[in-house]
Write a structure and sequence with these properties.
mainly beta, Porin, binds copper (II) ion
Length: 332
Amino acid sequence: MRYWIVGLFILFFAAVTGVSAEVCATCGDDCGCAEVCECNHEPRAPIGVMGDHVHHKGGWMVSYRYMFMKMEGIEGGDVSGYMMQPESMDMQMHMFGAMYTPINNLTIGIMLPYLVNDMDMNMVMMGMSTPMQMESKGFGDLKVSSTYRLWSSSAQQLLLNLAVSFPTGSIDEENAAGQHLPYPMQLGSGSYGLIPGITYSGLANGWGWGAQVNGTFYLNENYNDYTLGNRYALQAWGLRDLCKSSAVSLRLSGNRTENIDGADPDMPSPMMTPLADPNLRAGTEVDLLAGIDYRRDVMRLAIEAGLPVYQELDGPQLETDWKVIAGLQLSF
Ligand SMILES: [Cu+2]
């Protein structure tokens, strides 16, 4: 799969360094090659960026996003002293969303994720190692978002983002013996959260750029006696508008996660596995992602894939190997 991602990067550079003119000549819409990318797009970020646009008054959008993340290998420590040793994890998210714009410059939205987590582990007892799997799936935390356009010119805009996260996802996922699964296998935070942010973007002469900063702050301790750590995200992207209907992008995405405050008494002891240790959840990760975007009438279809270029975890923790985000948006 990593090869696919490398392929996507190659495609990106091929597109930017010359294939673009040909793509435009055959794209079939009314965006002529001479004025390639003079088309009056509003700036849009790559598909993995949330809250990057507002719609016209009265406008609706429905969207579906699929995210896959492969985690494999251990970073930031050694698991050999533990009985339950994580080996790899697949995280999938199906995100259903809707947006509506009741007044000029303000778009509100709702997003509900459905999560599927699979983890492979090794149980090590008296020198004997036995493979073991854990699985959890279900709806995660519901988010209600607002995006307000603070300022815009013909080529640039500045948006203010504020989302509220509701504790709709389960924090009681358990194994067959009735013991709670470790933190990364739980589906929700159990807490109310606030997610403020600022998004800047621009588009001129076929080149687009932008940056977003946001934070996720959990406001209360959940009923299992813990609060997930705050998260901070800073990202920047550049894109090339190939024509009216498509674009390629590169994005650098940095994320910092803090440790968990408190601890769930129904989880395994942190002595048994680092996955259940609230003080081994923090980390910093910077990803580089390449994306392709296709737009036709009311539809936008896009995919982004990438790899971490920097990872530093308070571990031992599973490290990210690669990730893919695909999305379909319909605006009307
Ligand atoms: Cu939208």
